[in-house]
Design goal:
The protein is of the alpha/beta class and 354 residues long. The chain has 14 helices and ten strands. It has helices at residues 3-20, 56-63, 90-99, 115-123, 137-144, 149-161, 182-191, 218-234, 252-255, 285-288, 298-304, 307-310, 326-329, 348-352; strands at 25-29, 76-80, 103-108, 128-132, 167-174, 196-201, 239-242, 268-271, 276-278, 291-292. It has a ten-stranded mixed sheet with strand order 7-6-5-4-3-2-1-8-9-10. α8 (218-234) links the parallel β6 (196-201) and β7 (239-242). It is globular. The two termini are 25 Å apart.
Length: 354
């Protein structure tokens, strides 16, 4: 099947998904407290936190606006932050979500994820887990801002990788300092029995906005794509993929399971720490907030709003205005549009061209 036919079919699929817009993935920013100080944090989280944790009962009221008959079988609530394991009621959170017939998972830095915590979370019905590892020891701790965080993350990965009952992956933010370590990180994760490794590059927002070490140039992006493509072609053991940041041109079908598709606002929503309703948590909160769980029905907002996510014609401006691949990219992932939204912050397609 040639490239043109593949993309015609994929755009047809994307159009149908957008029309139906079934909600099946919900982020909950359950805390902004964090025990690390990561250089690339999009939320600028700190240990004290600028806001108190959202009470569980507030989130459950929002969740209960979704009619039981409308909950798809694969519906998942993903706890994010901040660091979700700082919540003392984390077990209760999981149990209450499960009691409603929904799956749940978590994104964690792994610092507090030991065998006792693993047992508690599995007992609460956790079905998925993502742990971050951003390099070997020196580079990971440079990124995460805390000594000892590498060993803690590796031990958490070891525990999770040995658990057959969860969908587990490791995520890595690729930057100038760890790009040359990818082979070594791959060997480490493969040795730990990790099934999936997801790589992404930073969008210049939050703490990463003015950090030159975070941003990859064109040759570095291509080196990353070549690395992922080579591991996927080998097809042995650890499954390596690139995240859904934007269209990648000639690399598109070499580094992902499926062609690029930003599902923010299509299948994905989030409840943020202040009750705001958005899509992915890293999307601009001022520009793209769709309502609040404290004044609106979460499910009604999902059904009737999110227009900027489902009709991306507004993104035809700046470098995207006359782009020949706009119909494939739609202006990159929604988290690429911040501030006044005059143009996308990063164009992945342009960096993959030679």
């Amino acid at each position: 099947m040639n490239d043109r036919v593949i993309w015609w079919l994929w755009k047809l699929f994307r159009r149908n998904e957008t029309k139906v817009h079934e909600l099946n993935y919900l982020f909950w920013e359950c805390t902004t407290r964090c025990n690390l100080a990561c250089r690339h944090c999009g939320s600028d989280c700190t240990l004290p936190g600028s806001r108190r944790d959202m009470p569980l009962e507030d989130f459950l009221k929002a969740l209960d606006t979704i009619p039981r008959k409308e909950i798809p079988r694969e519906f998942t609530v993903v706890l994010t932050g901040g660091e979700p394991l700082l919540r003392p009621d984390i077990e209760d959170v999981g149990k209450e979500i499960r009691r409603r017939g929904m799956g749940w998972g978590m994104v964690s830095n792994g610092y507090f994820y030991d065998r006792e915590m693993h047992k508690k979370l599995m007992g609460a019905g956790m079905g998925s887990l993502t742990i971050s590892l951003d390099g070997l020891e020196q580079e990971h701790e440079w990124m995460r801002g805390r000594r000892g965080s590498f060993a803690r993350a590796v031990e958490a990965i070891r525990i999770a990788a040995a658990e057959p009952r969860i969908n587990f992956d490791v995520v890595t933010c690729v930057n100038k300092r760890n790009l040359g370590q990818l082979e070594d990180i791959y060997a480490l994760l493969k040795g730990l029995g990790v099934p999936q490794w997801r790589l992404f590059t930073v969008i210049p927002i939050g703490r990463a906005a003015n950090d030159p070490d975070m941003k990859l140039d064109g040759p570095q992006i291509r080196a990353l794509m070549d690395f992922i493509a080579s591991k996927r072609k080998a097809g042995k053991g650890l499954n390596v993929t690139f995240s859904c940041e934007g269209y990648l041109g000639r690399y598109e079908t070499k580094v992902r399971h499926n062609p690029y598709f930003c599902r923010a606002g299509i299948n994905i929503a989030s409840v943020l720490i202040d009750g705001s309703i958005n899509a992915c948590p890293n999307i601009d909160r001022e520009v793209f907030s769709q309502g609040s769980i404290y004044s609106d029905s979460l499910y009604e907002v999902w059904k009737t709003r999110f227009e900027p996510f489902r009709n991306r014609s507004w993104a035809r401006k700046g470098p995207c205005k006359d782009c020949k691949v706009f119909d494939r990219c739609l202006g990159n992932g929604m988290h690429n549009w911040h501030g006044e939204c005059d143009a996308t912050l990063t164009c992945h397609y342009s960096k993959t061209l030679i």
